[in-house]
């Protein structure tokens, strides 16, 4: 279903993503992080819906549809390194800072930081061209807001 989208995203020099494609790719990254600990539950799904509702001004129905499409995309997407690098090349830096914060919201949604999730966040942060400090500050903002 997403073969053409993934081919464009992982092209050697991808064009910047339009708004809809960027939303889909970034939401798929949220799903990938949520699935990192092998426990992708309703709480994490609701957290993703809440994040995309707030971030993109979607209705609850639209947010659920976006997440479901992102779940499908994530399952078809290449390895995390190629997928995240492709997002980095296609999404502006400021948007990537917001993404790291959203990723921490998903990781911390269940109240437990798993080693797999921490490791994946370190990798993703680096691949998005963000520093460990950027990631740590995003995590602290999320923890303070909870």
UniProtKB/TrEMBL annotation:
Domain of life: Bacteria
SUPFAM superfamilies cross-referenced by the UniProt entry: TerB-like
Co-chaperone DjlA N-terminal domain sequence ranges: 23-139
InterPro entries, sorted: DjlA_N, TerB-like
Pfam families: TerB
Gene3D superfamilies per the UniProt record, alphabetical: TerB-like (1.10.3680.10)
Protein name: Tellurite resistance protein
Species annotation: Tropicibacter naphthalenivorans
């Amino acid at each position: 279903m997403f073969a053409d989208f993934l081919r464009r995203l992982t092209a050697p020099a991808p064009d910047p993503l339009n708004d809809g494609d960027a939303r889909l790719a970034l939401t798929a990254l949220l799903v990938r992080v949520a699935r990192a600990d092998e426990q992708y539950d309703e709480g994490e799904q609701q957290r993703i819906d809440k994040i995309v509702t707030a971030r993109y001004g979607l209705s609850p129905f639209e947010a659920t549809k976006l997440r479901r499409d992102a779940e499908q995309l994530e399952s078809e997407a290449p390895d995390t390194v190629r997928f995240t690098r492709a997002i980095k090349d296609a999404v502006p830096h400021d948007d990537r800072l917001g993404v790291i914060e959203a990723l921490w919201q998903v990781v911390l949604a269940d109240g437990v930081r798993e080693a797999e999730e921490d490791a994946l966040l370190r990798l993703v942060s680096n691949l998005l061209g963000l520093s460990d400090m950027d990631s740590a500050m995003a995590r602290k903002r999320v923890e303070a807001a909870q």
